[in-house]
Structures are given as structure tokens and as C-alpha cells.
């Protein structure tokens, strides 16, 4: 799911001013998508995207399933109780406690490095992909390009599309990478601009792999939270200092409260 508070940061990080972001003409149907791609290719090249990234853009297809998902986000309108029931909070907490015990060294290292305890990381991991069980079925470039083309949030997603193409250039992702409907990737679902800005190599193998490496995904999530003001040792419930970092992760109030509750239960 898209992370609230990172769209503008991604645009600023990529140096895309508002006027530049709208250089390519948006549309609300698939009819103009191919023409838009040609315009977008020039914009991407001016932003420094290389041949591999441009080739990935040319291979993008309009994703109607992405548009359907974007128009049909209903769970954030639920009550907190129903949201947690629908999203399987009880299962997330139970499995999360087991994973915390099984990976005690990893979580201790992450807390020592970033100041973020296991609970919030595990709650996000479970909420986003059922601990890597389902990370999406949509082509990353096609999903991101579709939302950059779509007029509803074109400016937001143009920054993420440029980031995705730069990640292709760097070999972090490929034109065939698969993620969620809004272009989120990996075990905790990072949008491309956030991978570019906050992605880290958590397992020390010299690569950033948010899909195949749990350590990379969780370290990147901890890095994101720290960058959004997480303070080691401070509380993360509503009204406490670190709740703001959870708000930076996702803009939906019901999501934020659910993460805080599940994290506290996991941390004990």
C-alpha cells in the first residue's frame, strides 16, 4: 500500500519540480498511454535515467488492475476493530512473537543500529505481506507508470516512476520485477522512491534486495522509521514520540493504530 508522507520527499530527493512532473500529459484511460510513454521517456532522460531504465519504461503496459485497486481501497474506512479483524491482527501477533524469538539476534542488531525494537518492524512486516507470504503479482514498472500517467496522482507517482527507472539502471530491480498494485516492492512494501532513499543492505552481501532478503527489508524499514524521527527507547503508542514515525509510514489512522497495538503485543 502506498506510504503516506514519502511522495513529496521522493519528489524532492529526485529534484522534480511541480512543473517538470507535469511535462508528460496525463490521462484517465489507456488510450493515451503509449503517447505518454514517449513524452515520459524524454522527461526521464532529462532526469538522468539511462538506457536500461528507458528500455524498461518502453516495456511498461497500462495496468487496469492497478487502476481498479487504486479506486477500490476500502479497508482504511473500517473501524479499528474491523480493520484488525480483516487484516488478521491476531495471527500477525501470534506468528510475530514466534519470529521475534527465532530471529532474536537479527532484531537485537537492528535495534542497536537504528533504535527500533522488534515489535513495530514485525507488525509492519506481517501487515504488509504476511511476513513475505504474498508480495504482489503486478509488474513494478507497469504499475508505477500507470499511476504516473493517471491524472489522479500523477505528480506523486512521477517521482516514484523516475526512481524505479533509476533502480533499474543500478541493477536493484529489473523491468520484470513484480510487486503490489501501486508499485510497492518487497517484504515490507517500499515504493521506488523510498527504496532509493532508505533502502539498505541489511545482510552485508553488497546488494539491496527487499524481496529475497528479510534482513534487507527489515533494516530498510528501520532506516525509514529512524529517518522519520524514531528515537531509541521512546514509546510508540498514540501521543508518544515515536508514533509520528509510524504515521510517516502510512497516512491511514486506522493502519497506524493497528500497527501500534500489534507491535506492543509482540514486544510484550
TrEMBL record:
UniProtKB keywords: Signal
Pfam families: SLT_2 (PF13406)
Domain Transglycosylase SLT: from-to ranges: 33-236
The organism's place on the tree of life at top rank: Bacteria
Signal peptide bounds: 1-23
CDD domains: Slt35-like (cd13399)
GO molecular function: peptidoglycan lytic transglycosylase activity
A biological process term (GO) from this entry: peptidoglycan catabolic process
Protein name: Murein transglycosylase
Record-linked InterPro entries: Lysozyme-like_dom_sf, MltB-like, SLT_2
Amino acid at each position: 500500500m502506498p506510504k503516506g508522507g514519502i511522495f513529496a520527499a521522493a519528489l524532492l530527493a529526485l529534484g522534480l519540480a511541480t512543473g517538470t512532473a507535469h511535462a508528460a500529459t496525463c490521462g484517465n484511460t489507456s488510450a493515451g498511454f503509449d503517447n505518454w510513454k514517449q513524452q515520459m521517456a524524454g522527461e526521464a532522460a532529462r532526469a538522468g535515467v539511462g538506457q536500461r531504465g528507458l528500455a524498461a519504461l518502453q516495456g511498461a503496459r497500462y495496468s487496469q488492475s492497478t487502476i481498479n485497486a487504486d479506486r477500490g481501497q476500502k479497508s482504511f474506512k473500517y473501524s479499528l476493530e474491523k480493520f484488525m479483524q480483516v487484516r488478521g491482527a491476531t495471527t500477525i501477533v501470534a506468528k510475530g512473537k514466534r519470529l521475534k524469538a527465532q530471529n532474536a539476534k537479527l532484531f537485537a542488531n537492528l535495534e542497536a543500529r537504528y533504535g527500533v525494537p522488534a515489535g513495530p518492524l514485525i507488525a509492519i512486516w506481517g501487515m504488509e505481506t504476511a511476513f513475505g507470504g504474498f508480495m504482489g503479482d503486478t509488474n513494478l514498472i507497469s504499475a508505477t507508470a500507470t499511476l504516473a500517467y493517471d491524472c489522479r496522482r500523477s505528480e506523486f507517482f512521477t517521482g516514484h516512476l523516475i526512481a524505479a527507472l533509476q533502480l533499474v539502471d543500478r541493477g536493484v530491480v529489473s523491468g520484470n520485477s513484480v510487486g503490489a498494485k501501486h508499485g510497492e516492492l518487497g517484504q515490507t512494501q517500499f515504493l521506488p522512491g523510498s527504496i532509493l532513499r532508505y533502502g539498505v543492505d541489511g545482510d552485508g552481501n553488497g546488494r539491496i534486495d527487499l524481496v529475497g532478503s528479510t534482513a534487507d527489508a527489515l533494516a530498510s524499514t528501520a532506516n525509514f522509521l529512524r529517518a522519520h524521527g524514531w528515537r531509541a527507547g521512546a514509546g510508540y503508542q498514540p501521543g508518544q514520540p515515536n508514533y509520528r514515525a509510524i504515521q510517516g509510514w502510512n497516512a491511514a489512522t486506522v493502519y497506524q493504530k493497528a500497527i501500534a497495538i500489534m507491535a506492543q503485543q509482540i514486544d510484550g
